[in-house]
Design brief:
It contains 26 helices and 31 strands. It is an alpha+beta fold. The site of zinc ion has 4 residues, from helix 3.
Length: 865
């Protein structure tokens, strides 16, 4: 039996490096079966250096060949599976010396997709967080920033294109059909930002001029057949570059900026310096193959990775505990960019609602479960498990709160000071906070608690109105998630809605446990609109009457809170197993027929809270009861508003050429919600209209929505359309993913067999590949993580499938397996018999003796909860 306890890394145990690197030269001869990596590294004593300290380099799954120091073969070293420790350094290591190492790795055997690997015959790398050590022995930590010069060699017939970070310095033909390219990155960077790409790729390119007048070359590299699908990504890149100049005065600092698309990738994309590598899903789009959501996601991921060039690359993280320093900030930046791209205030609000919906559906549950951690975690076993919605999305909310407290201009001052102080450095979240505080002369000491405490704080709202004195009082009481935690500094935007419309929006800063604010001269009882635009990532405990909520839902001028009131009304009724009452139906009707409201807002307002968010409101979750109550509620909205839905379906048609702009996308979204509602009310009557839309659509949004409507509502026409869809798009990998995902996400339908049977058949489909993360996510993750009503079956069959899948995936790709393993995090939160079956499934996985550190951390924390 294996007895080794998992190793934990702790934030407070951080030590600066003993040695650091100056110039790094790499010479890489690419061969799928045996890639030879030669490194030539200038080593310098680090701040923590002491005489005769050994140099400990990380290396993983490498074949060691040789070591030289200052040109001489060196034999005083030790190798372990994870390290190369070099002793007897020249002059005890107190002056610069050169280390040269030769080692070998095997890209074609690399299924983890970390380090150097092969996808469709081409070479790619992924180094964040700790993948560089799979390419060569190195100080693989973000606080060691070095200058790189990289020579790539390969057979020209197999790899005509050779790319790495920075600028292309030279190319050369070599004997035996080989060739080489030399790349130099002028900016010091940590190893996690290293990248190389080699293979048969082609690019589209553009030259742009930045504010300072410099010319820049932009390229998007893809497999040749995908070239026609790159325009939208290029437009997004250009828009991002201009936005960062305008909003933050940040310019592109390299002569050339490249994006490369790869179909085997563990996540969305990676911000390697000057050579971003992307999952094809976030690059390739054409109206026929990509939905409006795909277009929007591409825009935001392209922006996100580009923005990292400053927030992440020029200023990077001291250690991985500081991950939110770059991720929270960069998510905030991409959210603001995407909101600005909408081109209107109401468009901005729509984006905000979508961002908050995601936060509450995914991050709130994480923050209440066994993997809960502060945005700056204190401990981890496997860093890859901490690229979480907490670090990213809650991290972005924390950054947004600075902006709320300091104003847009104050925030900008803080950003300017942050870059002035830290350009070229590896720093901490405290440094960011200090820049914000110092630039604005503000004491943000209490604000620090957002970085160190997990869980979603609750804020209780009590209000009184004294008609005689015309005085209104609101009292707020905060309770951090864990008893004993420190109090937070919480910015809450609020406004009193009065008949006279005479009260302006104000910002309350809740810093004590309980605070009261008094408003005088209030002529009649106002309705309180609190936490407007979701100014703080909290749960509000506020027993607002249904009448007040209806007032907010029909007339709050803060679009977020207007939407929120509707969600709250629906949520309360669903949880009480009620159907929408007459007043709510009337409010829905008014909203749907209001000519002044954006279609995209209407679509969001009529979309019910997700099941997983409803789970969060329950003490003990009965997933089938929640599903049934939510579905019945939906059915009632569908039938009671039948006339409106039918009318909207006609009104929202946008014949003519497809355009992915926000206004057209909003119309399509509302039209397709209308279609789905009509099918919900009566699939038999409306199926022909859906089939017609499916067949005649000139874009993927409409075609997919029609197909999804037919599948989800169990229409008899679904199978024929599914078959047609598969044949039409058999050569389009990303569309085939949609075809798989749709079938795996079908909720239970009365007359049909369980979705799990279908999922098991899909897993045997010739197009299913266990080593392609996108395909696995579209079948297995789609079912286990995105289809709660089908997954949570009282017989435990979903959980057994989960366990079997985690165990099958783990040896292939631990990161993809660990993400799936998170699916049973909240097992304790469920009622019986679900809980018992979940526990058995978790135990079954935990019993495997060869689990990766990734999966082991997730299941052991779940079991310990
Ligand atoms: N920084 C990368 C994520 C790397 C994940 C490593 N497991 C993408 C991003 O956040 O932009
Ligand atoms: Zn990022």
């Amino acid at each position: 039996m294996k007895t080794d306890l998992p190793q934990s890394f702790r934030r407070l145990e951080y030590l600066p490096p003993n040695y650091t690197f100056g110039q790094v030269e790499l010479d890489i001869a690419l061969d799928p079966a045996r890639t030879i990596v030669k490194s030539h590294i200038e080593v310098l004593p680090g701040v923590n250096h002491e005489q005769d300290m050994p140099l400990v380099l990380q290396g993983h799954e490498l074949e060691f060949v040789s070591l030289r120091i200052n040109g001489q073969a060196h034999r005083q070293f030790e190798l372990t599976p994870e390290t190369l420790t070099i002793h007897a350094l020249p002059e005890g290591g107190k002056k610069a010396f050169i280390v040269e190492i030769i080692c070998v790795c095997i890209p074609e055997k690399n299924t983890s997709l970390m380090g150097l690997y092969v996808s469709n015959g081409n070479f790619f790398t992924q180094c964040e967080a700790e993948g560089f050590r799979k390419i060569t022995y190195f100080l693989d930590r973000p606080d060691v920033m070095a200058r790189y010069r990289v020579t790539l060699r390969a057979r020209e017939s197999e790899c005509p294109v050779l790319l790495s970070n920075g600028n292309l310095i030279a190319t050369e033909k070599l004997p035996n059909g080989w060739h080489s390219a030399v790349w130099e990155d002028p900016f010091p960077k940590p190893s996690y930002l290293f990248a190389l790409v080699a293979g048969k790729l082609e690019c589209i390119e553009e030259t742009i001029t930045t504010t300072s007048g410099a010319k820049k070359l932009l390229q998007i590299w893809v497999e040749p057949h995908d070239l026609p699908k790159t325009r939208h990504a290029m437009n997004s890149l250009i828009a991002s570059i201009h936005w960062d100049e305008k909003r933050y005065g940040l310019e592109l600092d390299l002569e050339r900026f490249m994006i490369v698309a790869v179909s085997d990738f563990n996540m969305g994309a990676m911000e390697n310096k000057g050579l971003n590598i992307f999952n094809t899903k976030f690059v390739l789009a054409q109206p026929e193959t990509a939905t409006d959501a795909d277009f929007a996601n591409i825009e935001s991921v392209v922006a996100h990775e580009y923005f990292h060039n400053w927030t992440g690359n020029r200023v990077t993280c001291q250690d991985w505990f500081q991950l939110s320093l770059k991720e929270g900030l960069t998510v905030f930046r991409d959210q603001e960019f995407s909101a600005d791209q909408m081109g209107s205030e109401s468009g901005r609000a729509v984006r905000r609602i979508e961002d908050v919906r995601l936060l509450r559906q995914l991050q709130f549950p994480e923050d209440a479960g066994p993997m809960a951690h502060p945005i700056r975690p204190d401990e981890y076993q496997e860093i890859n498990n901490f690229y979480t919605v907490t670090v990213y999305e809650k991290g972005a909310e924390v950054v947004r709160m600075y902006q709320t407290l300091l104003g847009v201009e104050g925030f900008r001052k803080g950003m300017d000071l942050y870059f002035k102080r830290h350009d070229g450095q590896a720093v901490t979240c405290d440094d960011f906070l200090a820049a914000m505080a110092d630039a604005n002369g503000r004491d943000l000491t209490q604000f620090k608690n957002w970085y160190s405490q997990a869980g979603t704080p609750r804020v209780k709202v009590e209000e009184t109105y004294d008609a005689k004195r015309k005085e209104y009082q609101v009292t707020l009481t905060q309770s951090p998630a864990k008893p004993g935690d420190q109090l937070f500094h919480i910015p809450l935007r609020m406004r009193l809605l009065t008949a006279q419309n005479d009260q302006a929006e104000t910002l309350l800063e809740l810093t004590q446990e309980r605070q009261t604010w008094t408003f005088s001269g209030i002529a009649s009882r106002p309705v309180l609109s609190m936490n407007r635009n979701f100014s703080a990532p909290i749960n509000l405990d506020f027993d607002q009457t249904e009448d007040d909520l209806l007032t907010l839902f029909s007339s709050d001028d803060d679009a977020f809170n207007r939407w929120e009131a509707g969600q709250k009304l629906a949520m309360q009724m669903i949880l009480e197993n009620r159907l929408p009452d007459e007043a709510l139906i009337k409010a829905y009707r008014n909203l749907l027929t209001d000519p002044d409201l954006d279609p995209s807002f209407k679509e969001l307002a009529l979309t019910l809270p997700a099941e997983t968010y409803l789970y969060e409101q329950c003490k003990s979750v009965d997933p089938q009861k929640i599903y049934a109550a939510r579905r019945a509620f939906r059915h009632a909205i569908a039938s009671e508003l039948g006339i409106e839905w039918a009318a909207l379906y006609q009104q929202m048609q946008a014949p003519g050429e497809f355009s992915p702009d926000a206004a057209s996308a909003g119309k399509r979204a509302l039209k397709n919600l209308a279609l789905s509602m009509l099918l919900e009310a009566d699939p038999a009557i409306w199926a022909p209209m859906a089939v017609n839309q499916y067949q005649n659509a000139n874009n993927m949004t409409d075609r997919y929505a029609a197909l999804a409507g037919l599948v989800i509502h169990g229409s008899k026409s679904a199978n024929a359309c599914l078959e047609d869809f598969h044949q039409r798009f058999a050569d389009e990998a990303l569309v085939v993913d949609k075809w798989f995902a749709l079938q795996s996400s079908r909720p239970p339908v009365a007359h049909m067999e369980p979705t799990l049977n279908e999922v098991k058949r899909l897993r045997e489909h010739p197009a299913f590949k266990m080593n392609n993360p996108n395909r696995v996510r579209s079948v297995i993750h789609a079912f286990c993580l995105n289809n709660p009503a089908s997954f949570h079956q009282a017989d435990g069959s979903g959980y057994a499938f989960w366990a079997e899948s985690v165990l099958a995936l783990d040896p292939i790709n631990p990161q993809v397996a660990a993400r799936l393993a998170r699916g049973l995090d909240r097992w304790r939160h469920f009622a019986q018999p679900y809980q018992g079956h979940m526990l058995s499934a978790l135990k079954q996985v935990a019993a495997c003796e060869t689990l990766s550190a990734d999966v082991k951390e997730v299941v052991s924390k779940a079991l310990a909860s």
